[in-house]
Amino acid sequence: MTPERARTPWRAAGLAVRVVLLALLLWGALVAALSASPVERTLEEFRAAAGAGWVTHVAYREQDGDVFHLTWAEGPLAWREVQGLPVGDGPAVYPVAQLRRDLGEAWPVLVEPERDPDGNRVFPDWPFDVPEDSAGRWVGAAWVTAFLVMLGSTPRLGNRWAWFWLFTVGQVGALLFLLLEPRPIWYGPEREPTEPTEPTEPTPRNRWDGGTGCLLSIGLALAAVAASVTLGHLAGLLLG
Fold it and tell me: Which segments carry the region annotation Disordered (predicted)?
């Protein structure tokens, strides 16, 4: 058996793992983008959806036992919110106790207090904030696996420090890594990427270093935010 034939099963297995990880992260990125741009709805519409059993996830913010912001999902791709609910006294107040009654037995499964993203964290929030009913644990595990693979490999386009910044500050660097490293995922087994190497060099020259990766990660993060907002807006128009 030739070395090339011997490598073929390993390449096929590696490609399968990359496809699975990439599919999970793309799904998680889609759910995260849609959940970050929920469609405005009324409290009455939420209570009607809860009574009909359509609600699959709920997050809320409360003050002194009253809900003032409510986000819910009707399936992984349909996210709604109610903003500016009054607190204190009055007939329009929506206590957490009433929210509990509206959800009934589903309360402990569906509800979690809404929290602000931790801006002091280096690692991105979105792979670990996908709800459990939307394969949340699998998405988080896929991101961690891709990160460990990056640390244990010799990437072609950039060194590990460059990819570290793209994974973290860049938000979606894991997606790019799985698409491009060590060879573009769409290349066939007979096609090799062109690498700017000298005949005696074991590794490519001109790879991104840590500084370049840090700068690229800032642009990538801005592009990821813009894409998320655009996707959320389009989903709101299409899914209503």
Answer: 189-208
